[in-house]
Amino acid sequence: DREPRLVKSLSDMRAIVDSKCADVRVVDARSAGRFEGTAPEPRPELPSGHMPGSINLPFGDLLEPIGEGAAGTRFKREAELQAAFASTGLDLDQPFVTTCGSGMTACIVALGAAQLGNLKVSVFDGSWTEWASAEGTPIEAKQKGHK
């Protein structure tokens, strides 16, 4: 079973988007190109674009290399994390849901917010794959029809 405080379902997301994200913001962790609909999705059957009312914060904006010659990344320092969230206009004191392509990198954004003290963050684990595959879900994009 899902923990509704932590994991959102497609029906939860439909309600959030239908409300124009009035009480809960939606933060998409995918690249700007996929979010804007100008770059293709890695799943060729899906269009690129985003949920209406969502904002884009690519997960990579929260990470930095571990160190010279070392493989991997870690979260940026607190001030840099705060700046990354602030650049989106997102209020870290408000609840929001993270999403991405399949639910994995959304967790990076959610954990970054939690590290800054926002424990009112949840993840839409179906993310773009479920949203863009579902019947009747609205999609916004700068460039229509990118598949």
Q: What is the H-and-E element order?
A: EHEHEEEHEHEH
Helix run count: 5
Low-confidence parts lasting 5 or more residues at pLDDT below 50? none
Terminal residue distance: 33 Å
Strand content: 5-15%
Give the helix level as a range of percent. 25-40%
Defining traits:
single chain; 147 residues; alpha/beta; five-stranded parallel beta sheet; 27% helix; globular
Description of the structure:
By secondary structure, the protein is an alpha/beta fold. Helices cover 27% and strands 15% of the residues. The strands form two sheets. It has a five-stranded parallel β-sheet. It has a two-stranded antiparallel sheet with strand order 4-5. The longest helix is centred in the C-terminal third of the chain and has 10 residues, at 106-115.
Short structural description:
Helix content is 27%, strand content 15%.
Task: Give the secondary structure arrangement, pairings included.
Blueprint: E1 7-8, H1 10-18, E2 25-28, H2 32-36, E3 55-56, E4 63-65, E5 73-75, H3 78-86, E6 96-99, H4 106-115, E7 121-124, H5 127-133
Parallel strand pairs: 1-7, 2-3, 2-6, 6-7
Antiparallel strand pairs: 4-5
